[in-house]
Structure formats: structure tokens, C-alpha cells
Amino acid sequence: MKKFFSVLTVLLFAFAFPQKFDNIQSGETLNYRIHYGILNAGTATLTTLKTTYLGQPHFYVKGVGKTTGAVRAFFKVEDVYESFINYNTGLPSFYVRNVKEGTYTQHFETVFNHNNQTLILTDKEKNTSRTLNSVKGVQDMLSAFYYLRSLDNSELKVGSVKKLNVWIDDEMFPFQLRVVGSENISTKFGKINALKIVPQVISGRVFKDKEGVTLWVSNDRNYVPLLIQAQLAVGSLKASIDSYKNVKYPLNFTK
Asked: CB within 8 A of 124, min separation 6: which ones?
């Protein structure tokens, strides 16, 4: 189960464009309940606030994941991710990954320079920094989520494929997401129509194969992630929306 919360974060936060955050408002909070097999394994939370960073308008996004209950007794996870996303470009300016997963810890901070496609990676545990080459339009794990949500419905229609490069900890990962259909799914709030998305992920490390994950997002202007199901190398993982507030447009649940 090592790092599975980090991979979950990629998927939750994996769903540059001037003023295209008009469907997301400051104060939005999304909470998820995570199940590992039959166990109630943990929670994940996303919060969004409008702020300024280096004199520019930004979204400050924070993601927190942790194990709970019986799972926490034998595998304690406390992961914190933070990102300052430029409101006018949709690109990250500063990103923090601070994770504690069992005996494994990691605390990285990344400063992005999109003008010359470089980044400065600081390892807070080792107190070292280095400058690395990047690519045009790179996203971090949180900003990728908001970039995808900023797309209009013509860009996330059934059959479409979106590609992006995501900076995860100290390396770049290419991701590809296919919108394979739409269907009604059941949640604790009732049924709702959702887009079904299959992210292509790296096999052999955590997941059983490259397309062992399915993500459902609300089929409306919010594009709120509602459900994730994943077949892991050992066992299965499910994350479902548990509560939400300050979502800009109504989520149309039915009984």
C-alpha cells in the first residue's frame, strides 16, 4: 500500500487558459471517503481559496489525505499537497508535496519558471535545491485537476483524449485521459449523470495495468470527481464523494 495515497491524489487532482476558472469559486471544498477492499481506509480533502502570490491572482489549493480506522493502526498516512495556481494562465507557480506514509517520508517544494521552462526543486529533508529542465505547460498534481476542470464541454466530450505532463515529486510523468462514455452512477446523495474517464497510468509500480483505473466526474460545468475505482497490484481501491460545499453550480442528484 506504500504510496497508494500519492497515486490516488494524482487521480483526484488529475481533473493555460486566461480566466477559465470561472466554474470554480473560492471556498470550494470536496471530501472523499476511501475504501481499500472492504475496509474503510481513509479520507481525502480538497480546498480552494482565491489569493495572491507574488502580486498575481492565484488559487491556493490544498489536498490532504490520511488513513483512518483499522488501516491507520498498521499503516499511518498523512499526506499534504499545496499548490499556488496562476489564475490567468492556469499554470502552477509553487507546489508542495509533504507526505508521511508508514516509515516513508518526503517533503519537496517546487518553484516553476514557465518563461524558460525550468523549475527549482528543494528537498526540505535534505536541505538541498537544484534547478531542472521542465516542459511547456507542465502541471503539478493539484493544478492538473483544475486545468482539466477548466476545459469546456467540447474538450471533454465522449471520445476525446487529453494529454498532459504532471510533475509529481522529483520527476515528470506523461498522463493521458480518455473520456469513454457517460452513465448514471449512485452516490450517497443519489444518482447523477457522470462522464466516465480512463486515465492511462504507469503499470507495474502500483496498478495492475496501464488502464486499471476508472474515474467518474459530474457531467456538468463543475466536473466534480465523484468516484474512482482502481485495481491495485494488491487489492482494490475505491474513493467516493462524501461531502461538498461551495460548488458553483448545482449537482443534480436524483433518487
From this structure: 98, 107, 108, 109
Q: How many angstroms separate the CA atoms of 171 and 33, rounded?
A: 28
- Listed in sequence order, the residues at least 6 apart from 150 whose beta carbon sits closer than 8 Å to its beta carbon are 17, 20, 21, 23, 24, 90
Q: Tell the burial category of 251 from Cβ atoms under 10 Å away from its Cβ (0-12, 13-18, 19+).
A: middle
User: Quick one: pLDDT at residue 234?
Assistant: 67
What backbone phi and psi angles, to 5 degrees, belong to 124?
-70, -25
208 three-class SS: coil
| Three-class DSSP category at 168 | coil
**Bridging pattern class, strands 139-140 and 104-113:** unpaired
Per-residue model confidence as pLDDT tens digits over 82-105: 999 998 889 999 999 999 999 999
Tens of pLDDT, residues 45-87:
999 999 999 999 999 999 999 999 888 888 899 999 999 999 8
201 pLDDT higher than 60 = no
Distances in Å between the Cα of 15 and the Cα atoms of 95, 177, 203, 226 are 17, 9, 20, 11
* Angle (nearest 5°) at CA 159 between 157 and 162: 75
The DSSP letter of residue 232 is B
- Residues 4 and 133: their CA atoms lie apart, in Å, by 27
